[in-house]
Amino acid sequence: MTDQIAIHTEMLTKHYGDVKALVDLSLDIQAGEIFGFLGPNGAGKTTMIRTILDEIRPTSGSASILGMDSRQESVEIRRHIGYVPGDLAMYPNLTGRDTLTYFANLRGGVDWSYVETLANRLGADLDKKVGDLSSGNRQKVGLIQAFMNKPDVLIMDEPSSGLDPLVQREFQKMMREVAAEGRTVFLSSHTLSEVQRVAQRVGIIRHGKLIAVEAVSDLRSKAIRTVNIYFDAPVDSAEFVGLPGVREATSQNEHVTLSFDGQMETLLKVVTDKFHVLDITTHEADLEEIFLTYYRDEEVSV
Amino acid sequence: MLANVATKSVLERWKGILIGAGSIGLLLLMGMSVYRNVDLGLYTSMPAAMRGLVGIAEDTDVGGLAYGAIYASYGALTLAALSLSMGSASIAGEERNGTLGLLLGNPKSRTSILVSKATSMVGLTAVGTLVLLAFGLLSPALLSVELGDMHIPALAFHMFVISIFHGFLAMAIGAWTGKNGLASGVTAGIMTISFIGVGLFPLIDALKEWARIFPWYYYSNSEPALNGVDWGGIAVLIAAMVVLAAAAVVGVNRRDLRGQTTGVSLIDRLRTHPMTKKVADRLAGSARVSHIWIKTLTEHQGLMIIVAYIEFFIMGILIGPMYTFIDEFLLDFADALPEAMLALFGGGDLSTAEGFYQVETFGMMAPIAVMVVTIAIGARALAGEEAGRTMGLLLANPIKRSRVVYEKTISMIAGAFIIGFATFAGVALGSVIGGLGMNMGNIAATCLLLTLLGLVFGAVALALSAATGKPRLAIFGSIGIAIVLFVINAFLPLSDSLAGLAKATPFYYYLTSDPLLTGMHWGHGAILAGLFVVLIAASVVLFQRRDLRQMG
Q1: Mutation for testing the A interface, residue in B282, B289, B395 having most A CBs under 10 Å
Q2: What residues 121-140 of chain A have any CB closer than 8 A to a CB of chain B?
């Protein structure tokens, strides 16, 4: 079913009074794909998810999941999806197992051996009351709830919040397995690194508008890096402005900070020719920097 | 002092206070205009003990009756209820919401936060009192009613003191336990029992002096509207408040703050014990979550057990034997009262056991009891899950929104019938124990009408819940509607020209047919049931049309 469309939206728009939470969002997500939905807080990610799940109704436009209309056939759609809401809350007085039993009953039953497998993989404690769990452990119950009926489409809003790095890795593995079986994952996130690790494509949303859909490999090549270089003597930032790939340079005594998106090799060559380098650190720019750098123009022009 | 904490609390609550006090004020205006058309001859000859039952002053006139019936009882109860909800929320409410830790992350002591909360509670209650006082002074002028020698400011002052007393009581319990529901529940229970006790105890010789154990006694016994401020009674209440405030300070400082943790119930303990694990697991676990309606019902089990207990033991079993102790003199007197007068007592004729039960149990307490349960279930049904952010998760399952409404309705019906049955069982047993010989079928009929009445107002709460997704609005909106309709039904029949309007209230179809004496009035039952069905249908439509709310 790889050439099938799992999620399709057409000019999807949602206004809250004067606030335009979603504007003309058109998107196709293929079955069997892990699709990352990226955007800063308040960009409209959650609104988009709540709209396609019929929690809220679009002001205009339409959406469909697995070819079914999000409004007319919402009950049938929900038979085929798993959902992890953002800022997950559950019934504090029920244990994890009670909670899963409750939802399993509403779905007409699940394979409990699979639930146990999931619980073991994530290290979830199902015998404690949900209200007594830490947020990360509560999140695990939410994830099991979404995975347990082996849904065709998994829709998850910031699903890894509160999970420790080891569990996050296991969770990423679980998502890849889902995709490998031809099922679809829609992953909303504001952390670029997580999305890069699992997704094939990402959509970037800002102020309710979908401003880009890119393959992860393309995005990576665009990614700006922050480069810190430490020298044995004070340097002037002006020395670095204008070097290929340097977008911005600031210096403080023996230390210079560059916003860089060029070839590392060229930079190193130039710098080591001129100065004595003591140390270099480099890290990925955060999502907001990428937005500012690459998508400011698109946003204005849209 | 923490002006900003106090200010924030005031900003959160002022609407409720103004609406509460304002509606009582409007009721006063309405009551007074109704009383203008009533012959007051007999009121003045009532024995003091009987007047205590409805809070009417001696040498009464139109003004006195309206103040007595509306201000002194409903007004004081409403104002006290508002204060106690502020009091219980002050510490325990912030703990329940998980915001107390955040608040205490600032360089403020627990004591100073408590003081700010107390300040806002007292201040807002004072504002409510002033609104009531303004209505109390303006209404007679508007309607050209002579007030005679009434001390309205004194009455208002007494109302203010008894209200903040309950606020401090709830605050102290909340500060010691950190449990908001417990604090408001226990305080409301004490308030209700003391209100009933102060009315009832003076009717029975042996219990007369015992009325002093109730806080309400120090508010109402001196008849402040007639005799001015009773500084002795006020001093008792103020002394009690000082103790409670001190207890609150000690309580909040000595214990660990609660996280957003859950309580440990008996069934939880049984679940951890190897011998009982299997059965308890079934009860608390798989059986509890087998259907939406069963799960909903179990969420309200604590409330239902308490209410059913009160209905069964206090309002049911206890009232029967008590009737046999009542003064012969009072009964003879009650026999001579005209029909219109009886409306004040909940329509009951005190010379019969049925009438006594109607006054004490069915007139006001039983409707309140069943409505507490149905409104709690109805208001939280949809809006509660939205406020708790679980509705999205629930509706991610392949179920229609209408099914959620229907299942929540089933749990409301079950809850109403549990309270209705507890009342029936209690009254039936009370009649047997007291040797009153009441007709069992008639008791059952009355309890059925009671259950239907409760369902109507539960459905009002559900409809508000479905339309708005706001639990507080659904709770206070439906309680407000119930109070207004109750008072309309109780007082409009006193005036010939307005009597017909009572038929527009659900309360009319509850007791007007005298079911305790005449049995089931199927027509009235059908009207209540029809109203319930219409409201549920409206809830389904309202809920389906709307965007789910997103909190936080």
Answers
A1: B289
A2: 129, 131-132
Amino acid B243 reads: V
CA distances from B431 to A212, B204, B322, B353, B497 (A): 77, 18, 10, 8, 38
Is A208:A20 a contact under the CB 8 Å cutoff?
yes
CA angle A101, A103, A109 (to 5 degrees): 70
Q: What is the pLDDT of residues A78-88, one digit of tens each?
A: 999 999 998 89
pLDDT in tens, B117-144: 999 999 999 999 999 999 888 888 887 7
Report the distance separating Cα A8 and Cα A62, nearest Å: 8
Between CA A49 and CA A32 the distance in angstroms is 19
Contact of B62 with B30, CB cutoff 8 Å:
no
- ipTM of model: 0.79
Query: Taking CB atoms and an 8 Å cutoff, what residues of chain A touch B273?
Result: none
- pTM for the complete prediction? 0.79
Relative to beta strand A153-157, strand A184-189 is: parallel
Of the candidates B263, B289, B548, the beta carbon closest to that of A105 is on: B289
